[in-house]
Amino acid sequence: MTAIQTLHILNKSPDHPRAARCLEIMSAEDGLLLIGGGVLLLATGNLPGAGKVFALSPDVDARGLRQLTGDASVVDFPEMVALSLQAQRVISW
Amino acid sequence: MSTLIMIDQPPYGAWSGREALDMAFSLAAFDQPASLLFTGAGVNWLRQAQEASGIGQKSVEKNLSAAPIFGIEAILADRAACNTYSLDESSLIEGVTLVDVKTALLTGYHHTAFAG
């Protein structure tokens, strides 16, 4: 598994200004982990073109988005911890 | 005196949406005409097959299913916002009417209030 430079943990829904800012500064070596209301990005189909995208399983299921995950990888809590350890740095938006 | 309660916040992140729902249900229970309008990220309240036990909550879908019992006049959803969040007739819960949110819609109510 290639290392992630920066893991962006986004819990804001797509209409929050911070969500747009997060996607703006994300680069190809980064990872985006969607949690809480952040998983609603999956429904908009506007996933970032560069970098890997992950979404937290219980939050995806709570919002009924299991069919709309697209290219994102659905992860559980232990995998979320592993991702944060694997990343060089983490930004919690 | 008809009231329109607007919910523009996504489900589960905060309590304001559920509080607005309680307010609408209370109005309806006391025979005050009330309708709900979901806009922006708020339309995600209306998606089928929400399974919220994993985050320790009840699904808001179940809350909303009580709306006709309390006598809520209409559950309205902003068509443009539904498009943004990939929601259509096949993925929306039952009893939702798609509307275009324009001034004409809001002038039909004596009072419009946002949740939160």
Structural description of this entry:
The complex is a heterodimer of chains A (93) and B (116). Helices cover 31% and strands 23% of the residues of chain A. Chain A is built from four helices and five strands. Chain A has helices at 17-25, 41-44, 57-62, 77-86; strands at residues 6-10, 31-34, 52-56, 73-75, 89-92. The radius of gyration of chain A is 12 Å and the shape is globular. In chain B, strand 1 (3-7), helix 1 (16-29) and strand 2 (34-38) form a beta-alpha-beta unit. The mean pLDDT of chain B is 93. Chain B is α/β, with parallel strands linked by helices and 116 residues long. Chain B has a five-stranded parallel β-sheet with strand order 4-3-2-1-5. Chains A and B meet through helix 3 of A and loops of B.
Short overview:
The complex is a heterodimer of chains A (93) and B (116). Helix content of chain A is 31%, strand content 23%.
Could you describe the largest sheet of chain B, including whether it forms a barrel? 5 strands, parallel
Supply the helix-strand structural class of chain A: alpha/beta
The number of helices of chain B is 5
Structural class of the secondary elements of chain B? alpha/beta
Which two chains have the most extensive interface, and how many residues on each? Answer: A-B, 20 and 24 residues
Strand composition percent of chain A = 15-25%
Instruction: Give the oligomeric state.
Output: heterodimer
- As residue ranges, the low-confidence spans of chain B are none
Give the strand order, joined by hyphens, for the main sheet of chain A: 4-3-2-1-5
Using the CA coordinates, give the radius of gyration of chain B. Answer: 13 Å
Low-confidence stretches of chain A: none
Main beta-sheet strand count, sense and barrel state of chain A: 5 strands, parallel
Helix content of chain B: 25-40%
End-to-end separation of chain A = 24 Å
Order of helices and strands of chain A: EHEHEHEHE
